[in-house]
Design brief:
The structure is a single chain. By secondary structure, the chain is of the alpha+beta class. The protein has a domain at 27-148: Aminopeptidase (3-Layer(aba) Sandwich), CATH 3.40.630. The chain has helices at 27-39, 51-63, 75-83, 129-144, 162-165; strands spanning 14-19, 41-45, 88-96, 99-108, 112-120, 148-154, 170-174, 177-181. The longest helix is centred in the last third of the chain and has 16 residues, at 129-144. It is globular, with a radius of gyration of 16 Å. It starts with 13 loop residues before the first strand and ends with a strand.
Length: 183
């Protein structure tokens, strides 16, 4: 799936990105990173579909109130949404004690990484896996010499997207121009 906004009279969806070269981890970011690095095993591989990942996706959607009354996804739906790709995609896998508790799907470009989707078992929310995955992707950008981490779209009036704006400084594409936000 490829996404592109196409609402002629609406400008609510704003692409958002982080400049990996000048992003400074806050005290809170460093705390999340330290704990995750100490307790979670992170591996990278190709996007994969299996029942554990499908279960994680559905647990995440349901536990975070994101299911909107839709039926759970099955392996075919997961494959179509997150595994079948025309990009150089990869999966960050987060495991605790050998058990997979989260995955983050990303696309790698020539100069950037695009965070596609992150899901995790809500019972492990204390690890802040969503934020941890962004921080790990920023580390990957730096180690791979990539300039930006794209976080998808930001919508100020959508509570579910507010976490993206907490990563500062960031840039949002407004009227065709990248504008920097410090707070």
């Amino acid at each position: 799936m490829l996404y592109r906004t196409a609402c002629p009279s609406c400008e609510a969806c704003e692409p958002i990105r982080l400049d990996a070269l000048d992003f400074q981890f806050s005290r809170s970011h460093r705390r999340v990173l330290r704990r995750g690095d100490a307790e979670l095993r992170v591996t990278i591989g190709p996007p994969t579909v299996d029942q554990r990942r499908v279960d994680l996706y559905n647990l995440h959607k349901q536990g975070r109130g994101l299911d909107d009354g839709q039926p759970p996804i099955d392996q075919e739906g997961y494959r179509d949404f997150l595994v079948s790709t025309c990009c150089d995609s990869f999966e960050l896998r987060f495991a605790l004690g050998g058990k997979l508790i989260g995955v983050a799907i990303s696309d790698r470009g020539a100069r950037s990484i695009s965070a596609v989707y992150c899901c995790f078992d809500p019972r492990y929310s204390n690890y802040s896996i969503g934020s941890y995955s962004i921080l790990k992707q920023l580390e990957l950008c730096k180690s791979w010499g990539l300039r930006h981490l794209y976080l998808g779209l930001y919508i100020a009036d959508c509570d579910r997207m507010l976490y993206k704006a907490r990563f500062v400084p960031h840039e949002r594409l407004l009227k065709g121009r990248w504008v920097r936000f410090e707070s």
